[in-house]
Amino acid sequence: MNITERIAELRRLMSEKGIDAYMIPSADFHQSEYTGAYFKSRAFITGFTGSAGTAVITQDTAGLWTDGRYFIQAEKQLAGTGITLYKMGNPGIPTLEEFLESTLPQNGTLGFDGRAVSVQTGNELAKLLSYKNIRIEYAYDLVDLIWTDRPALSDYPVFLLDEKYTGESTASKLERVRKVMKESGATAHILITLDDIAWLLNFRGRDVAYTPVVLSYAVVMMDCVHLFMNKLKLSDEIKSVLAKDGVILHPYNDVYEFVKGIDASEVLLIDPVRLNFALRSNIPANVKVIEKQNPCILMKAMKNEVEIENIKTAHVKDAVAHARFLYWLKNTIGKEPITEISASDKLESFRAEQEGFLWPSFGPISAFGAHAAMCHYGATPETDCELEMGQLYLSDTGGNYNEGSTDITRTYALGEVSDELKRDYTLVLKGNLALSRARFLYGCTGQNLDVLARQYLWNEDMDYNHGTGHGVGYLLSIHENGARFNWKYIEESARPLENGMVITDEPGVYIENSHGIRIENELLVHKGNKNDFGQFMYLEPITYVPIDLDAVDVSLLRDDEKAYLNDYHKNVYELLSPYLNDEEKEFLKHYTREI
User: Which contiguous run of DSSP H or E holds residue 171?
Assistant: First the structure.
């Protein structure tokens, strides 16, 4: 069944159920950014495989809304399907909400699987469309009725993360969460976000590609935790450990009936951004509900000292793999064939040699030349191309280690490259360095600081169509909620940067049909001096991978920028050289030389 046939069958089911427009988001039942194979309904219906986007199907039209990271990819994948691409944020493009408002008839019905839509989104749509008396139908997963060979839910075993990695026991974390609950006047707290549950209970799994989480729901009470998941994934040892912390096990899907039975004496704390619409709709009307941000978000975003030391260890391991990869790339290009896929496979093989490596932290972006202009390009056997001299190669990859997760982007010059490429590369580098050098007063947000990374591109009337940075979880979500660098207002970018947060610094530039450049380090937020002016903060790069000096136009760097880059490279060499052989050391010495 091709895309056109799937949409036709979906329309038949919509007509049968009396649904005028059916919305299919990217999310799973847990509001995850990345999802397991079972939950990729939007990709199944549209053929668009990017991680972010929402489809809306009516009897007459079909549309997909996605952001700037995926415009080029979506255009290619939607070609010939009859689905219209709506480029979010572009002038003259209706938002999804505007489309629904103009398209749905009076007294019509909007349908979606309520498990895959947040409370906030569902309520906003209901309010927006109320003047047309639009009915919301959230009980049907219509895609499931079409997807005859839908993959099964993951049954990967759960594993515990020792306190030598987490730095804090589950009992301590529960105590902190319950303190917030008590201060809020709540007696119970519903959690459905997988990284929050994994962080709270100190376990990990492999139910989502790359992200080490476990399909589960949790209801935290004052004296116990009700955990809903496939119990077959738990060993007797893990069951025993969980039981000591008052965890009571239930089957995965039983949470919806459990919530219906919550006693009227309870007061529920929910996060409307991170609870699904179906679960919220099952809460009895006589139960008091407090809407507030899930307290785990900031708690897990602010890493403790044990986590910080472990994360730095993971970054040294990852940087050793990158140094060996760079040595291999520079010495092999032009002599033996290298493709996008073989290059990323080679880097993964160097990672696999590192003690404690588990698996990649996200799908690799291995992009040569014009492919790198597609911000989130993923090489396939059909698109895989050979790397050639005279161009740039972009590698955005990460690793999951027992000591944490990494996210690193480097763009490499393959032989001698043009002055234009060096100029664009150096403008991106200047932005990366400017942000990492920031000193700021406590209370500043990622929205305040984002311009530091963009200023040199903006001076040339250039920009990049994505945020400058995102939080990184500790062996959890590689894109973690908590804080972001983004000049646009979003919840995370408007939140003050806190001591212990880990955030990426990844400006870029993308020239369609030509090249793409991105340079990404992870930064650790620190408290600095406190004086009469206030509490000052600073950022520490904890990514230790050389910047490719072959791509830098040194004449565009100021003396202070050169000094900072030289100090960074000196630290890189000191950290990595003990793990390299003599040839690799000499190579690294050259690529971390003073300029």
Answer: helix 170-184
Confidence of residue 375 (pLDDT cuts 50, 70, 90): confident
All structural domains of the chain with their residue ranges: 3-146, 159-296, 302-591
CATH topology of domain 159-296: Creatine Amidinohydrolase; Chain A, domain 1 (3.40.350)
DSSP per-residue string spanning 406-445: --EEEEEEESS--HHHHHHHHHHHHHHHHHHT-EEEBTBB
Nearest CA-CA partner of 59 in 95, 114, 9: 9
Distances (CA, A) of 360 to 194, 372, 381: 18, 20, 19
CA distance 151 to 130: 37
pLDDT score for 285: 95
pLDDT tens figures, 291-319? 999 999 999 999 999 999 999 999 999 99
- CA separation for the pair 106, 101 (Å, rounded): 10
pLDDT one-digit tens code per residue, 484-508: 999 998 888 999 999 999 999 999 9
Distance CA 495, CA 482 (A): 8
Q: Exposure string (b/e) for 186-210, b if CB count within 10 Å is 16 or more?
A: bbbbbbbbbbbbbbbbbbbbbbbeb
CATH 1.10.10.10 correct for 3-146: no
CATH number for the domain running over 302-591: 3.90.230.10
List, in sequence order, every beta strand (DSSP E) within 138-193. 159-160, 188-191
Q: Which long-range contacts (CB under 8 A, 24 or more apart) does 556-561 make?
A: 556/423, 556/426, 556/427, 556/430, 557/426, 557/429, 557/430, 557/595, 561/430, 561/433
Q: What are phi and psi of 174, to 5 degrees?
A: -65, -40
Model confidence over 385-438: pLDDT tens digits? Answer: 999 999 999 999 999 999 999 999 999 999 999 999 999 999 999 999 999 999
Amino acid at position 382, single letter: E
Q: What is the pLDDT of residues 1-56, one digit of tens each?
A: 899 999 999 999 999 999 999 999 999 999 887 888 999 999 999 999 988 899 99
Locate all alpha helices (DSSP H) within 62-95, ordered by sequence. Answer: 71-78
Query: Do 363 and 209 touch, CB atoms closer than 8 A?
Result: yes
Same fold, 3-146 and 159-296: yes
CB 546 within 8 A of CB 323: yes
In whole angstroms, what separates CA 204 from the centre of its chain? 17
Query: Coil, strand, or helix at residue 590?
Result: helix
Q: For residue 62, what are the β-bridge partners?
A: 57
- Cβ atoms within 10 Å of 270's Cβ, excluding its own: 22
